[in-house]
Amino acid sequence: MDNKQLTRHISGQFNAELEAIRNKVLAMGGLVEQQLEQALDALGTLDVELAQKVIEGDHRVNGMEVDIDEECTRIIAKRQPAASDLRLVIAISKTIADLERIGDACVRIAKAAMEKRSNNQQPLLVSIESMGRHATRLLHSTLDALARMDVESAIELHKEDAKLDKEYEGIIRQLMTYMMEDPRSIPGILDVLWAARAVERVGDRCKNICEYVIYYVKGRDVRHVSYEEMEKD
Amino acid sequence: MDNKQLTRHISGQFNAELEAIRNKVLAMGGLVEQQLEQALDALGTLDVELAQKVIEGDHRVNGMEVDIDEECTRIIAKRQPAASDLRLVIAISKTIADLERIGDACVRIAKAAMEKRSNNQQPLLVSIESMGRHATRLLHSTLDALARMDVESAIELHKEDAKLDKEYEGIIRQLMTYMMEDPRSIPGILDVLWAARAVERVGDRCKNICEYVIYYVKGRDVRHVSYEEMEKD
């Protein structure tokens, strides 16, 4: 085997390793998406068993984070990637931290689904579920943008979070009215409040992941940068 | 200059670079600690000007995160660190993300300090301030453990977060009583609730940073690992 062949061989193996962690992060994203959907299903139908399943499933998300993170470190140490390869590894290692936290949000939502609710709290849960479905679509599209490293979609989706924030503000106002009308319901409604907040945070995490896609493609850190500046680039 | 000298020279420069990012992350930690103290001062005295100052100061925290993160990437690309050097860079790049989020928590606390409060909400703010001082001490000791890469302290501090969580639960209960007694106060108290939650999150962030110290020293990822397992190691 001559030297050139060897180089190609090593580089081919390196490519395979990069491809493998890309696939792993997408698989982790798929699992988190499923957790989010099931948590919302549980909330919508007050299905305690399903909620329990989501809570128990969180350790798989955590395990994937640790696993992929180790793999990223191993690649950096062994392959000494530069330029876009290094950016890919960094983008992935940041993405999994956000995915893990979306996993925690799913647990929070599932916990709200496990509380006994009076009938008059039903409309509240419907609002949260609907906001949650919005967040699920945002997560799905974000993972799509990540899979295709599609910077245009990432910029579009980055803006989508603001809509979710508006929806969240509306729900908080709604929750306040409920609490003021029936103060005895306050402890139960606080759970719903945490669930709403968890859904809102899913949007923030998606926004972060979009920033990593932009970082990978453009080589520029756009955290704390305004849309105007982002689009100008 | 012979080859050996050159190597020593390069390595000396590399050490200086590692030392420089270590110092930068500690400086960032110092700034965040100051932000947290001032946010709590503002909450304790309802000092709107000081609260405003904290809110405006957050962009400096953000700027430091982006700056140090770039420096970490540059070191990985240029120096191709391995073993403990690589772990140091990774630990730092994760630490700054948590510090940045503690910065966001300070903004949240400062915002609660800016609202007009009736006198009967004063005791609530005192509770949050006291919990906040606890969190500040925890942050200070965590940064200390980080500066000395002291794994024993890191393990001890890691447990401290549970105490903060207990304090937080007590405050939430207290907040609920207030809301139930005077439903009109609910909107104002929700701000206090967010501030309490922000303080509680500071503890979680400190716990994360302790995990990075353990990771750096022991070379082991202890996220999602129980204390028993951690101490057995």
Instruction: List how many beta strands of chain A DSSP finds.
Output: 0
CATH domain class of chain A: Mainly Alpha
Query: Superfamily at the CATH H level of chain A?
Result: Phosphate transport system protein phou homolog 2, domain 2
Oligomeric state: homodimer
Largest sheet of chain A: none
Helical percent range of chain A? over 70%
Kindly give the count of domains of chain A: 1
Would you identify the CATH architecture of chain A?
Answer: Up-down Bundle
The Rg value of chain A, from CA coordinates, equals: 20 Å
Describe the overall structure.
- In chain A, 88% of the residues lie in helices and 0% in strands.
- With 233 residues, chain A is mainly alpha-helical.
- Chain A is globular.
- In chain A, 41% of the residues are buried.
- The first copy, chain A, has a single domain (3-232), classed as Methane Monooxygenase Hydroxylase, Chain G, domain 1.
- In chain A, helix 1 runs parallel beside helix 3 and helix 2 runs antiparallel to helix 3.
- The longest helix of chain A has 43 residues, at 3-45.
- The mean pLDDT of chain A is 90.
- The first copy, chain A, has seven helices and no strands.
What does this entry show, briefly?
Chain A is mostly helical and 233 residues long.
What does the secondary structure layout of this molecule look like, with pairings?
The structure is a homodimer of 233-residue chains.
Chain A: H1 3-45, H2 48-79, H3 83-114, H4 122-148, H5 151-181, H6 186-218, H7 227-232
Helix pairs in contact in A: 1-2, 1-3, 1-4, 2-3, 3-6, 4-5, 4-6, 5-6
Domain PhoU (chains A, B): 26-112, 128-213
Pfam family, one (chains A, B): PhoU
Subcellular location (chains A, B): Cytoplasm
